[in-house]
From TrEMBL:
Annotated InterPro entries: EF-hand-dom_pair, EF_hand_dom, EFC12, LRR_dom_sf
Species: Ridgeia piscesae
EF-hand domain location: 122-157, 162-181
Protein name, per record: EF-hand domain-containing protein
GO molecular function, a single term: calcium ion binding
Amino acid sequence: MLTTLDLSCNRINSQGFLRICQAVEGNEDIRVLKLGQNPINEETAMAALELFKNMGVLRLEVLDLSENLYGKRFEQKLAELHEVHPDFMCRHGYTDSYGKRRLKRYSVVEDAMDAMRQYCQEHNINIVELFSRFDADGSMSVTHEEFKLGLKEAKMPLTDYQVEELIKALDQDGDGEIDFR
């Protein structure tokens, strides 16, 4: 009997992914379904989790969606599924070690902070000195606009999305300024 089905990296789209997930309901043997490295968007992955949640008996133990990045809504849907099927496991996110398949969650903020740390190392400065360069009035805080402009002038390799998420994380009190005292 077939207990593991590996369809990783096969260009399976969202529609094909959902059809495979629907077929799991009638299958009593498959325990591991590997569909990583396929273009499966978050909405479709969440729909599959909802489908699994509503199954009376879920024999599938592992759904591997490695190399697909999903956000908080997906995590919430996965938590709902665990309430009904606590032994089910869904792997997703980047793998951090080829061959070992240890999974690492991707954080936009951590990635952006790593880019800033690397920039500071390359320019032999610390993070406070970097922020001081952005601080036009010497107030030990920078507005969101000063921060964006400073990153742009420094030619920091960050996307607009990374910058926005970084601002949300750094402006903890939500006053419109990033305090770096």
